[in-house]
Amino acid sequence: MQVSCNNVTFVYDKKDPNHYDALKDINLEISKGEFVALVGKTGSGKSTLVQTLNALIKPTSGYTKVDYFIVTSDKKLFKEKMKELSEDEVKKNKKLYLLRKKVGLVFQFPEYQLFSVTVLKDVMFGPTNFNLTEEEAKKVSIEALKSVGIDESYFNKSPFELSGGEKRRVAIAGILASDPDILVLDEPTAGLDPDGKKEIMEVIKKVHEKGKTIILVTHDMDVVMNYAKKVVVLNDSKLVKITTPHELFDSDDIEKYSLEIPTLYKFKKLLVKKGYKKDLSNVYDFNSLIEVLGK
Fold first, then answer.
1. How far is CA 23 from CA 35, 84, 93, 281, in A?
2. What mean pLDDT, rounded, does the chain reach?
3. Three-state secondary structure string covering the chain
4. Measured between alpha carbons, how far is 23 from 7 in angstroms, rounded to an integer?
5. What's the pLDDT tens digit per position in 135-167?
6. Is the pLDDT reported for residue 294 higher than 80?
7. 250 to 66, 77, 269: CA distances (angstroms)
8. Contact assessment for residue 248 and residue 254, using Cβ atoms and an 8 Å cutoff
């Protein structure tokens, strides 16, 4: 497994008697090249979980493993896991920047990641800090910006002059320029109009097609339906289901976990409610729905 969470628990304000358990005993495996959606109602632990993947936060107990990198705040456990690794892997575990190069995280609000005077310099920050020369960093940054649809005319603009969708593209480019193996995106379509949402998701789809692992935190079930291959459902800080989009949306669990029903499945259920008799179980998109309805 490229990523595994092993009995991961995370407690905010552990010393407070009224402490909050953001994650409770999470066990999860993700293989290289998967496109995984992480879903659940607000406060279920989604953002906390993905932040353990590159050690922005460390599990209170249990551990997250990304390839040979071990993330935990349990020092005894960390030492035990180090015994399972080669000498070189142990040395690399002491260099967090290597893990953060491997796992690129795009936050929900892109302005949190943008800070430089120009778009190009902002994107160059990551690769420059991962020991590329300025010339090399500029080259990969230009390629990353072009890959997300940012025209050269924007390169010398302040990132804070951009629209919400453009800022999000630049934030994604800033991560892609460092060439991570795993791209983690927290609500990448939040606040975007339908066109902006589709544009961002098509960028992410192209990244996935290049062999990158995608882990997507989202409340948008239409995005899950159209792009994800595996869905991980969190509820009340616990992992409650690992499934596929179609299995989830065809079940009654979606309402139990306070998830929005995608437009297609709303329409399917409405047809059945109105007395439509044909089998819709193999209808997974609007094209197949139109085909069935036309027969």
1. 22, 26, 23, 34
2. 92
3. CCEEEEEEEEEECCCCCCCEEEEEEEEEEECCCCEEEEECCCCCCHHHHHHCCCCCCCCCEEEEEECCEEECCCHHHHHHHHCCCCHHHHHHHCCHHHHHHHEEEECCCHHHCCCCCCHHHHHHHHHHHCCCCHHHHHHHHHHHHHHCCCCHHHCCCCHHHCCHHHHHHHHHHHHHCCCCCEEEEECCCCCCCHHHHHHHHHHHHHHHHCCCEEEEECCCHHHHHHHCCEEEEEECCEEEEEECHHHHHCCCHHHHCCCCCCHHHHHHHHHHHCCCCCCCCCCCCHHHHHHHHCC
4. 9
5. 999 999 999 999 888 999 999 999 999 988 889
6. no
7. 32, 41, 9
8. yes
pLDDT score, position 16: 67
Say how far apart CA 166 and CA 154 lie, in whole Å: 10
Per-residue model confidence (pLDDT) at position 118: 95
pLDDT digits (tens, 9 = 90+) for 18-73: 678 899 999 999 999 999 999 999 999 999 999 999 999 999 999 999 999 999 99
Q: How far is CA 16 from CA 13, 20, 96, 237, 247, in A?
A: 5, 9, 29, 18, 40
| CA–CA distance, 16 with 12 (Å, rounded to integer) | 9
What pLDDT sits at residue 17? 67
Domains of the chain, start order: 3-110+182-260 (3.40.50.300), 262-295 (no CATH)
- pLDDT tier at 75, thresholds 50, 70, 90: very high
Which has the closest alpha carbon to 220: 184, 240, 194?
194
